[in-house]
Amino acid sequence: MKQEDFKDNEYIDKLVEELNATGANVAVGNLNKLINWGISNSLWPLTFGTSCCAIEFMSLGAARYDMARFGFEVARNSPRQADYIMVQGTIVHRMAPVLIRLYEQLAEPKYVIACGGCAVSGGPFKKSYCVVNGVDKILPVDVYIPGCPPRPEAFFYGLMQLQRKIKVQKFFGGVNRKQKREEFFATHPGFNKENMT
Amino acid sequence: MSDIKEILSSICPEVTFAEGTDTLEVVVPEEKWHDFAAQLKNDKRLDFDVLTAVVGMDWKESVGVMYYLTSTARGWDLLSVKVVAKDRKDPYIHTVSDLWKVALFQEREVFDFFGIKFINHPDMRRMFLRNDWKGNPLLKDYDANPELNPIPLDDEKDEDNTCSYVEDAKGKIKKVPGLVFGKDEYVVNIGPQHPSTHGVMRFRAAIDGETVTKVDVVSGYIHRGIEKMCESLGYPQILHFTDRMDYMSAHQNRHCLCACIEKAMGLEIPRRAQVIRVMMDELMRISSHLLAFGCTAMDLGATTAFFYGFREREQVLDIFEKTCGARMSMNYNVIGGVIADLHPDFCKDVKALIDIMPERLKEYHTVFSKNIIAKNRLKGVGMLPKEDAVNYAITGPSGRGSNWSCDTRKVRPYSIYSELDFNEVLETGCDSYARYMVRMREIEESCKILAQLVDNIPEGEIRAQVPKIVKLPVGHWYHQVEASRGAFGVYIESDGTKNPYRVHFQSPCFNLVGVMDLCCRGNMIADLITIGAALDFVIPDIDR
Questions:
Q1: Residues of A with CB below 8 A from B229's CB?
Q2: Is the pTM of this model over 0.90?
Q3: Where are the alpha helices (DSSP H) in A22-65?
Q4: Splitting chain A (197 residues) into consecutive groups of 10 residues, what average pLDDT does each group show?
Q5: What is the CATH number of the domain that holds B491?
Q6: Is the CB of B193 less than 8 angstroms away from the CB of A59?
Q7: Sheet with strand B186-190: strands edge to edge
Q8: Contact A96/B152, CB-based, under 8 Å?
Q9: From B228, B229, B247, residue closest to A55, measured CB to CB
Q10: For residue A137, what is the domain's CATH number?
């Protein structure tokens, strides 16, 4: 996709401007760019499918949609080898501690994509007694992909948004990426542990 | 029917018969239930060899269980047995898991949801919810306050302990603690986050060297409480849940729920809608079996075969997308018929699919089925003799791989299946390879059904006239269809209002995972994955 096709996220452009305005060191700045170019083009997902969205994710891996075109194809089964968790499906109470543990096992820099209605907000199961209403209640989320399940094209759009987000981060300090889960909840009072119901 | 009534009364004079139900229903006093059940199973005149469904119930003044039994020898007669626990506060019912092994898991589910303790059940643990969960969610007076059960952030404790309830000679019930695994056993944990468990299923396998000695299934990592949610929604609103349980049998599951509601309403479905439904069911079956083929291959490390399976699956999804508007979670069946008419390209696309499938199946067999590695990994692995398949109520391709004729489309035909010419696929191998081959051959049969219908779709309405607010009369109904993985059942109890009083989904995968322990014992730990792949369970269908 071309730059002008991303019309709905001026905030990223603003972020870039802001970063440039602070006057980054030329050497570090270029190194940042190089590293981000590398990371964003070899994003390895952790296979974490709990329900329907996982099947669509499998379609992404198959021949027609072929996510290898973007460098997403190396789906890892161990969080220690993966760059991001793509939460595909409902997270229920029994799964929540497992998901948190998987997230904590991911190596930095790490990202979370909430994929599908259930992961975004609880979706059709919002009223259930044991469904976590959105993974952002327990994890900091980078990209939301709505849909039930999202179409493969929507998956790609979400993944490419993540790539764009990565391209503006500062690997050597700054911005949000060194943020830990605890820090996220400390800076987002709406999401703190006491409010998690 | 009347002679069965006589036999039942002669075995146990205390039984009473309920009136106005869609199946023969007996009410049995709790203290007589176990002996009566033994008679039902062992008496050759009755011969109820399959426990089809176990439905926990809360009738407000009492709690109890509805058992649905089937006799395969006598034309798949369905009998429902109502057993009411004596004390609502502290309910006990005698287990029947010693007679029908399928009850081992089914009764644990009832225990989890209703708190009914089953006397003499060997392993009375919760099935879907964490063992520190407070309350039993499907009771009508359950306190849904989220503060009682906040999102847990710590791991579950106390996982190795179990208990059972035994009755002594005086009729006093005692809780006996037990252990899931022996003290000296070496236990390997697999899952819940593991790609080859086909979702978030967790197995704990005790191994001796590389040989599995016991498998403990820990389920509930995707338990969403669908049955409870149904109770607060109207009938048209609960339909979409079925698409999200076994998403590989979305059409069949929804067909089942719609048919059950239609049966209760006494609604006649237009012929065109019937034909469309059956065609969609068969397309879904093809897509599901193609996915099963791909996943079985991938679990064995054959990534190429996965691409082949998905290539044809995309073609099926295109057909769905054109007519239903979605690739998955189609939400196509509605009460009274289907939601939209067929796309103009539908017949052309279906014909194109039927045309290429025989050729493609040959290709699959060349690539994978005849491969020596595949054969070595699948043949003679995960043996499931026919008696066990019946006892554990393993239906669908897995049951037919054990040479058990259990296709609901044949044995208890619904919709227009009785008019169609197709064969029930049976294999005698009883192993993983037989189950795999049943799936591959079922694709051919599904194509055959599609070929018969594609040129004979009648003109007419796609939907019967249905009132805006659907209300069912007071009563309960049970309906079964053949989903991609076996007999899928829906139980609806209505109290006459616009919301169902109780909905229960009897999922085939729940029984499939119940047989993992039996199939894996004595096999290598690496074969646990292939056995799971060949049984082909879908986890959200188990957990609901």
A1: 125, 127-128
A2: no
A3: 26-40, 52-61
A4: 65 67 63 79 83 85 84 81 86 87 84 88 86 85 87 88 78 54 64 48
A5: 1.10.645.10
A6: no
A7: B186-190, B202-208, B211-218
A8: yes
A9: B247
A10: 3.40.50.12280
Task: Give the closest of A77, A129, A193 to B144, CB-based.
Answer: A129
Domain count, chain B: 2
Phi and psi at residue B156, in whole multiples of 5°? -70, 140
User: What confidence score (pLDDT) does residue A196 get?
Assistant: 45
CB contact under 8 A, B220 and A92: yes
Domain span at B125: 2-142+166-178
Q: What are the chain A neighbours of B146 within 8 Å (beta carbons)?
A: 129, 197
Please report the pLDDT score of residue A191 as a whole number: 55
State how far the Cα of B512 lies from the Cα of B516, in Å rounded to an integer: 7
Residue B90 has pLDDT above 80, yes or no: yes
Residue A117 belongs to a domain: yes
pLDDT value for A7: 64
Strands B173-179 and B161-167: antiparallel
* Chain B stretch 321-380, residues whose beta carbon is closer than 8 A to a beta carbon of chain A: 327-329
| Chain A closest-CA separation from residue B203 CA (Å) | 14
At residue B2, the pLDDT reads 60
Q: Evaluate whether residue B220 is within a structural domain.
A: no
Residues contacting B512, CB < 8 A, separation 6+: B394, B396, B398, B485, B486, B535, B536, B537
Same domain, B128 and B273: no
**In this structure, are B170 and B275 located in the same domain?**
no
SS3 state of residue A15 = helix
Residue A112: domain span: 47-171
Q: How far is B388 from chain A (nearest CA, A)?
A: 29
Q: Answer whether B145 touches A (CB < 8 Å).
A: no
Q: Which residue of A has its CA nearest to B331?
A: A148
Please spell the DSSP secondary structure of B4-38, one letter per residue: HHHHHHHH-TT-EE-SS-SSEEEEE-GGGHHHHHH
Count other C-beta atoms under 10 Å from residue B492's C-beta: 23
Minimal Cα–Cα distance from A39 to chain B, Å? Answer: 24
Instruction: Tell me which H or E stretch contains B512.
Output: helix B508-514
DSSP string, B322-354: HHHS-SSS---EETTEESSPPPTTHHHHHHHHH
**A197 to B539: CB separation less than 8 angstroms, yes or no:** no
Tens digits of residue pLDDT in B342-383: 888 888 899 899 999 888 899 888 888 888 888 888 888 888
The reply to whether residue A92 touches residue B224, judged by beta carbons under 8 angstroms, is yes
| Domain annotation covers residue A177 | no
Residue B203 located in a structural domain: no
Which residues of chain A have a CB within 8 Å of the CB of B293? none
Instruction: Identify the CA nearest to A140 among candidates A98, A105, A192, A90.
Output: A192
pLDDT in tens, B188-242: 888 787 766 677 888 888 988 889 998 988 888 888 888 888 888 888 888 888 8
Q: Do B222 and A130 touch (CB under 8 A)?
A: no
- How is B337-401 classified by DSSP, letter by letter? EESSPPPTTHHHHHHHHHHHHHHHHHHHIIIIIT-HHHHHHHTT-S---HHHHHHTT--HHHHHT
Q: Do A131 and B224 touch (CB under 8 A)?
A: yes
Helix (H, G, I), strand (E, B) or coil at B63: strand
- Sequence-ordered list of residues with C-beta below 8 angstroms from that of B43, at least 6 positions apart, any chain: B7, B11
Looking at this predicted complex, what is its ipTM? 0.83
